[in-house]
Fold this protein.
Amino acid sequence: MKTTTSIQLRFNDIDMAGHAHNAVYLSWFEQARMDLLRNFIEKDHDWKKFGMILARNEVDYKRPVHLSDHVEVECSCSAIGTKSFDLGYSLFVTKAGERRLHAQGRSVMVCFDYTTNTSFAVPEAWRTKLARMMAER
């Protein structure tokens, strides 16, 4: 399973060259990541005790995004480790009925307890849901 998140482009996302600034892609990926996490983390979750820390972000830019573009980001789990999991992102622009890949990305999320400043094993409930997502891709 993957989530698809529609992105609302803002004027301040655009740089002087007339396309989306490279840094906003990470914000768009974050929006998609939060949509995916809502699928298996409850609303009243204790993020300090059972949180996550972003250990790595990668972006491969394929084509520029412009202010008038219709943008969607697909997010899915691509790997599960002992204390971390990887999320993959595909950013698409739809123009004139054609959906084209404009960027891809990956992030590594480490399960982290902010009260003790230590990592912890991916909770079994999360592991099960993430594994199911990977199987449905």
Q: What stands out?
A: Helices lie at 24-37, 124-136. DSSP finds two helices and six strands in the chain.
